[in-house]
Amino acid sequence: MQLKWHGHSCITIESENSIIIVDPFITGNQMSDLDVDTLKVDYILLTHAHGDHVGDTVALAKNNNAKVVAIVELADYLEESYGVDVLRFNMGGTLHLDFGSVKLVPAFHSSSYNGIACGEAGGLIINVDSKRIYHAGDTALFTDMSLHKNIDYCFLPIGDTYTMGIEDAILAANLIDSQFFIPIHYNTFPEIQQSPERFVSGLKPLKGLIPEVGEGIITK
Ligand code: NI
Ligand code: MN
């Protein structure tokens, strides 16, 4: 399995039998190392509808015949407007797919696309090849994050302005049972300039990782 971060909130997971991308914001993401035209994906998982998360979903879904996994309202909108193949779920729901499973969990954030409300914003808990990954989406700090246990890799936004900032992300990490914490949603735009090193040093003794864009967080 391979796990990589591609700038902003975009991660990819290559499992034994599927390639998964979360929040594929590539075009317009100056940190991204990915090429929309050549990228191969089987599943596109979305935390919420904002443009910096839906990103290149439509092109990737069409190029690859990939399935788009999203909350019901966003899935309906993408299916009706763009004819992409979707799988729907809602808060608390788990979908069992080729690679394992993905559960939609709450986040405190808003959600709209092209000015249209598209359900709620969420986070994702992905079980794949015996690893458990929590992608928190664009959330603010909230105490129910403490209910997430036995996570291996937890991705938390630290950019501030549109999500929690470093102090709240450190508080969140202290609520969540995870082996590693990885900062996301920072340095993509001027309003979200942050020091990931400050996040990781504030986490101690919890373990933080600051992957380079495109670097393997898991490679084997
Ligand atoms: Ni957002
Ligand atoms: Mn965002």
Brief characterization of the structure:
With 220 residues, the chain is α/β, with parallel strands linked by helices.
Textual characterization of the structure:
19% of the residues lie in helices and 32% in strands. It is built from five helices and 15 strands. The chain has a seven-stranded mixed sheet with strand order 6-5-4-3-2-1-15, covered by helices on one side. It has a six-stranded mixed sheet with strand order 7-8-11-12-13-14. The protein has a two-stranded antiparallel sheet with strand order 9-10. Strand 2 and strand 3 (19-22) form a beta hairpin. Helix 4 (166-175) runs parallel beside helix 5 (196-203). It is globular. It binds nickel (II) ion and manganese (II) ion. Nickel (II) ion binds at residues 48, 50, 53, 109, 138, 162.
Q: Give me the secondary-structure category.
A: alpha/beta
Sequence of secondary-structure elements: EEEEHHEHEEEEEEEEHEHE
Q: If helices are DSSP runs of H or I spanning 4 or more residues, what is the number of helices?
A: 5
Number of DSSP strands? 15
Helix content: 10-25%
Give the CA-CA distance, first to last residue.
6 Å
The residue ranges in which pLDDT falls below 50 over 5 or more consecutive positions are none
Question: Over the alpha carbons, how many angstroms does the gyration radius reach?
Answer: 16 Å
Bound molecules: nickel (II) ion, manganese (II) ion
